[in-house]
Amino acid sequence: MSLSKKFYTCSAPPNPLLKDKDPRDVSSLARRARDEGNLNLSFSLLKDGIKLHPNDAYLWRDMGFTLLEANEFKECLSFFKRAYALAPDDMKIGMPYARRLRRECMYEEAEQLYMKFIKGADNTDSMKLLESLGILYFQQKEKGLAAACLGQAILHGLQSSHAIEKYAALNAQGFTLNDETWTAFANRLQAVLAPQKPVQSHTASYRPKPA
């Protein structure tokens, strides 16, 4: 039986030893078990943790990671989604959900999540979000937008061989970061985040600050 099915069918009470443990300690124990390859233990800890703390977003997210490690790709999405519903403004919760949406080719939903976090992010997180958007656009063959995002992230110090390789491939096809592609991305950003407002020509506010 898959781990996800066990989660919904197991009616056993949670381990009493976990009753007084902080949810973050449960997550830490589960992560250690997962890193050591003991997915059954990781699952058991998180299952009991969720029973004891059903509104803890990080326990739901970490269960998503454990199911992902168990190759239960579609099943883990519902756990990331539940975590996001509990903490929609937490980027550490939203990003795993967005990545899984992208992997499942649910591009529109993933794009909305990435963009939701990008304007309030610091420089480091902005680069990661731009990389994620760039890869999403690359997969969708929206090459100008992909070049704008990947190029901007690399320009501001992103050291990712994955992003650099894709940006080089785009450059070879004539797509690069320039005023035209960056403005197109800024317009796309505003259209997604605030479709009821007119598009503004000023785009500097969307640029991550140099380190």
What's a quick, concise take on this entry?
The chain is mainly alpha-helical and 211 residues long. The protein has helices at residues 3-9, 23-35, 39-52, 57-69, 73-86, 91-103, 107-118, 123-139, 143-155, 161-172, 179-193. Helix 3 (39-52) runs antiparallel to helix 4 (57-69), helix 5 packs antiparallel against helix 6 and helix 9 (143-155) packs across helix 11 (179-193).
**For the CA atoms, what is the radius of gyration?**
20 Å
State the distance separating the first and last CA atoms.
49 Å
Tell me the major beta sheet: none
> How do the helices and strands follow one another from N- to C-terminus?
HHHHHHHHHHH
Give the strand content.
under 5%
Class per helix and strand makeup: mainly alpha
Number of helices: 11
Count of all domains? 2
- Mean pLDDT figure: 89
Task: Identify the quaternary structure here.
Answer: single chain
Uncertain stretches: 198-205
Please describe the structure with a list of short key phrases separated by commas or semicolons.
single chain, 211 residues, mainly alpha, Serine Threonine Protein Phosphatase 5, Tetratricopeptide repeat, 68% helix, elongated
Structure description:
The chain is mainly alpha-helical and 211 residues long. The chain folds into 2 domains: 1-104, Alpha Horseshoe (Serine Threonine Protein Phosphatase 5, Tetratricopeptide repeat); 106-211, no CATH class. It has helices spanning 3-9, 23-35, 39-52, 57-69, 73-86, 91-103, 107-118, 123-139, 143-155, 161-172, 179-193. The radius of gyration is 20 Å and the shape is elongated. The protein starts with a helix and ends in an 18-residue tail after the last helix. The relative contact order is 0.08. Residues 198-205 have low confidence and may be disordered.
